[in-house]
Structure formats: C-alpha cells, structure tokens
Design goal:
Layout: E1 2-7, H1 24-40, E2 46-49, H2 53-60, E3 67-68, H3 78-85, E4 100-105, H4 109-119, E5 132-140, E6 143-152
Parallel strand pairs: 1-4, 2-3, 2-4
Antiparallel strand pairs: 1-5, 5-6
Helix pairs in contact: 3-4
C-alpha cells in the first residue's frame, strides 16, 4: 500500500479553524503540489480529504474526485487517520496491501503519523505546508515495514 500524505497549503488566519481559506500563496503552493502529484500519483488512487476549507481547496487543485472524511479533521488523532486509510491494508478485500491512498490533512496529525510509521513511536515531526510525504507498506521476511518513498515540497518548484 502507498500512503501519500499531503499537508494543506498556506491558509489565512481566522477564529473559525474549519473555515479558513487558502491565501494567494497557498493557492500557488497547492497548484505546484498538484502538478507534482499529477506526474507521480498512481492511477486509481483514493483521495481522502479533511472537511476543513483549506484542505478542500488544496485537494481541489488536483482536479480529481475525492472523498471528504470527518476523521481527517484538524482535531483528529493519528489513530483516526490510520483507521480512515485502513493502514497497512488500504482496504484490500483480500486483507493484503493494495493501491494508493492520498490524504490531504493537517499538522500535527500528519507529522505524528509519519513519525509513528517510520520510527515506531509518535513524535512531533513537522511537515511543511503543501508538502507531500509518500510512504509504502511492505512485508520483508514476514515482517511488516514502512519505507519512505519520497518527500516533496513546493519550495522545490518556487
């Protein structure tokens, strides 16, 4: 299974956290990240997105169909994210890892998820706005492992 985590792009400040829209810079970040994803995202990938406006706008830059998942909202946990994506199976009917899932979500949950999957314990890892972390679940010698496949940031394209 491929788990691709995309942090929402830069958003405006505001009192209602769920309704904060992207800034002009955030729209550019989302567009650059979407271009990278279009070139690299496996065909048929499921796209799961937080219901927060800034995450929805980030995902819309990709111009692909996506599902809004309440369990990916800003106040949700690593366990909620992993349950939403069915890690490491990814929803495969046979119980085996399959396909790719792209999650558009938030800090600190994305960073904590990466820390847990790569190091075995939750930690406060930082993921930059509109950055993409691509993880792969695989089994080697009957042991489940997570590999880091790629990390991309819009700074590479700006």
């Amino acid at each position: 299974m491929h788990l691709i985590l995309w942090r929402h792009a830069e958003a405006e400040e505001g009192k209602n956290d769920m309704k904060r829209p992207l800034t002009k810079r955030g729209l550019k970040q989302a567009s650059l990240a979407a271009a990278w994803l279009h070139a690299n995202l496996p065909k048929g990938a499921r796209i799961l997105v937080s219901p927060a406006v800034r995450a929805q706008q980030t995902a819309q830059a990709l111009t692909l169909d996506f599902e809004t998942v309440p369990g990916l909202a800003p106040d949700q946990s690593v366990a909620d994210l992993l349950a939403a994506v069915d890690w490491p199976q990814g929803g495969g009917a046979d119980g085996k890892a399959s396909g790719a899932i792209l999650v558009v979500g938030h800090q600190p949950t994305l960073g904590q998820s990466v820390a847990l999957l790569l190091s075995g314990s939750e930690a406060e890892w930082s993921i930059k706005k509109s950055a993409i972390w691509w993880l792969t679940a695989r089994t080697r010698e009957d042991e489940a492992r997570t590999a880091l496949r790629a990390v991309w940031s819009p700074e590479f394209a700006m």
